[in-house]
Fold:
Amino acid sequence: MFQKSSVYTAFLLVWVIGLAFLGSCSGSGEVISDGEQKTSVPNDASCGDQKAAPKVAPMAVSMRAMLQQAETMRTFLISDSAKTGAPPVWAPMPFEKQTPTDSNVVTPDFLRRAADYHKAFDLVVREPTPDHFNAVVAQCVQCHESNCPGPIKRINRLRIDA
Ligand code: HEC
Structure:
C-alpha cells in the first residue's frame, strides 16, 4: 500500500511539473493553478514556437514517467510478491495529446501507434503478467523505432525474459 501511494505521488509530481512547462510553453509563463485537473492539452500551434519552447517538452516528461513506472512494474512482476501482493499503480499517460519537442512527430501513424500502445497498456493493468508487460514494451519499442531511437536500448532492458 505504501509503495502504491508513493508511486502515485511521484506520478502526480511529474505530471504537475509537466503542466508547469506547458504553462511556459503557451507564453503565459505561469504555472497553471488548476493544472491537476487537466488530462490533456489542445494542439495549440503557439506551443510549437521554438523560441517559447521549454527545454523539456511535456511529452518527454510523460515518457520519463512512463519509463519509471514501467521499471516499477517490472520489479514487481519479477519479485515474489507478484504472486500475492497488489501490483503498483501504472497510470495511463495521454502522451499523444501533449506537446512534443518536435511537433512534426504527431502524425496519423504516430496516433495509431499510440492507440496500440494504450491497448496493450490497458491489458497489463487489468492482468499484470510478464507476457502482457512484454507486449507493452514491444509497443514502446515499435513507436520508438520510427520516432525516437535514442532510448530503445534502455526500453529493451525492461523486457522480462521467460
Ligand atoms: C506512439 C509513440 C511512442 C510510444 C508508444 C512510446 N514512446 Fe517514448 N517517446 C516517443 C517520442 C515521440 C518521444 C520524444 C518526446 C519529446 O521529446 O517530446 C519519446 C521519448 C521517450 C523518452 C525520452 C524522454 C526524454 O527524457 O527526452 C523515453 C525514456 C521514452 N520515450 C520511453 C518510453 C517508454 C518506456 C515507453 C513505453 C512504456 C514509450 N516511450 C512509448 C514516442 C513514443
Notes: Residues 16-50 have pLDDT under 50 and may be disordered.
